[in-house]
Amino acid sequence: MRHKLLTTLALAAGLLTASEESFAQQSQVFTVKANEIQAEVAPTMWGVFFEDINLGADGGIYAELVKNRSFEFKTPMMGWKEEKRGGAEGTLLVHNRGAAQLGNPRFLRVAVKSDQGEYGLSNEGFRGMGVKKGDKYNFYVLARQLSDAKIGLVVELVDQKGERIGTATVTPEGKDWKEYKATITATATDPKAQLLVLAKGRGEVDLDMISLFPEKTWKNRPKGMRPDMVQLLADMKPGFFRFPGGCIVEGRTLDERFQWKKTIGPIETRELTVNRWNTEFGHRLTPDYFQSFGLGFFEYFQLAEDMGAEPLPILNCGMACQFNTAEVVPMAQLDTYIQDALDLIEFANGSVETPWGKKRAEMGHPEPFNMKYIGVGNEQWGEQYVERYKAFAKVLTEKHPEIQLITTTGPFPDGKEFDYLNTTLRSMKDARVDIIDEHYYRAPEWFRENATRYDSYDRNGPKIFAGEYASQTVAIASPDNKNNWNGAMSEAAFMTGLERNAGVVVMASYAPLFAHIEGWQWTPDMIWVDNLRSFGTPNYQVQKLFSTNSGTHVVPVLRNNKPVTGQDGTYASATIDKATNELILKIVNTSDRPQQGEFVVDGVKKLQQKGTVTVLQSDNLNQENTFENPDAISPKQQQIQVKDKKIKLPMKPYSVNVVRVKMS
To answer: The Alpha-L-arabinofuranosidase C-terminal domain covers which part of the protein (predicted)?
Structure first.
């Protein structure tokens, strides 16, 4: 009897499984109303957020290979080491000019005390220097002789074994500072090379701004940026480029805040400061993390222009990071901060006849950058922020009503800080609020559950900037977070909700952007790099897929007359692109079962019989991309058939699908 009962239960379970499988294979019918435009999709909808975290700038996108090139770190010789060859003797002495040259007070005096051999120093770079066989590297140095004896400089690249893989010579002349340049051709590839600068001949020579750049940079600009890293961004076709952060805008203290005026002009006069991520996390202390500002506000604007993206600078509002010191500048002294905003508008947009427009022109860009947005503060909260924002808004509205003002609801998507600011900013009568910046660092489940977050937002209120978001696969700020498919797919589900609500949401960007595999502080991150390579994570692939398939107008995609917001694990949004006359569908299947979608398109005379579907998919929710397998999760495109204004789409488990079909 017991055996018979077990058999019956087993059969029933089998029938249930078969029934579930049959149900999964049945077509799920969706209706697309292609002629019912709900909202325009802002050209800025999908963009890029940059912050100098995880060696994102120095040691990252800024292609300088020498660490502490002007001896301005708190430990002046950090990154450098004394070198002797052939019995040479000498001394290395750092001189500090102090206020006489505030932007770059220190230089190094090399005294050679022997006639034989070579004496000098080596630089370890940022976790080594990545060099490639056959590539050229430009060495620069500011130097002056201190005696009639001419000391020559031998410049070498050496590999991890200390063997020479490239060399050049420089002979400084005269007692005045002058920049010298030499070109080294690498004879081998090494991700951990070092630079040697060795003096030959008895006497003294002063050195400053010792620098090494690959000749191959983005757009071949001297002393420019890593082309592979910028290319990954350009490939996204971002609508905006937000810079320079992020918490780095705030600083741990106000003295350490980001001050844009110190980041422009000749690079040897840009005043270095500590990076606020230097000591932020005890588990990832980075004592050699500083900001040289070789990548400064001019370069940020230039990069935005290169990518066809709207520049979006964020400025300090008179408040340091509230997670650190929470320092504030007194309201009576806030005018300096507001003036920085006014001067930035002039620097970006002013004519060459204005003081700050002239500075832009002197840097090689007489045409304005046509900046349209400014963010006031980063992740501030509380009454002290509201008070300072109002002061900014009053002046900026009076003098530059054409500039859109972006404000913040703090670091969290909910809670008392969020609720206070969200209510206060929306009810303001005495200050303009154009766009509110919301941030979400939450678990993958949160992103799937919040695809409807903006369905009920006021269409007539301030617009939304989803300024920072990333799925935290373990916990917020955990070093164990991964850029896995579960997180990326969940973000895609959430992003369909952003796109459906394009009448409210006008900007969105993943954060953080870059991370060096040996120098990171925060995970997860969109793009990972080492000294020679870079790759986009599954999260990058999702962001790129949405950004390059944006469309111009949102139209409804419905299932049972309701938006597709998680029914059977499915999420969807639809746009049309009036420029190409295409229908674009984005469908995310977060379930572990394949699903058959049938999309019935109303409101068009005809669809072309062939379209394309681009798919991101993995059966393994823990799948990541790696240096060894950078394309583990990458887009696969194929043609699909269209018949009688119906699109049949088989959706694999755990997949993100983007369909494009021409309309007529």
So the answer is: 467-655
